[in-house]
Amino acid sequence: MNRDAMSRDDMPIGDFSRRTGCAIETIRFYEKIGILPMPRRRGRYRLYETADIGRLVFVRRARELGFTLDGVRALLRLAGAGADACGEVRDLAAAHLQDVRARLADLQAMENVLADSVRRCDAGAEVVCPLIETLSAA
Question: Which of 37, 43, 101, 130 could staple 117 via S-S, CB 3.0–4.6 A?
Answer without folding.
Answer: 130
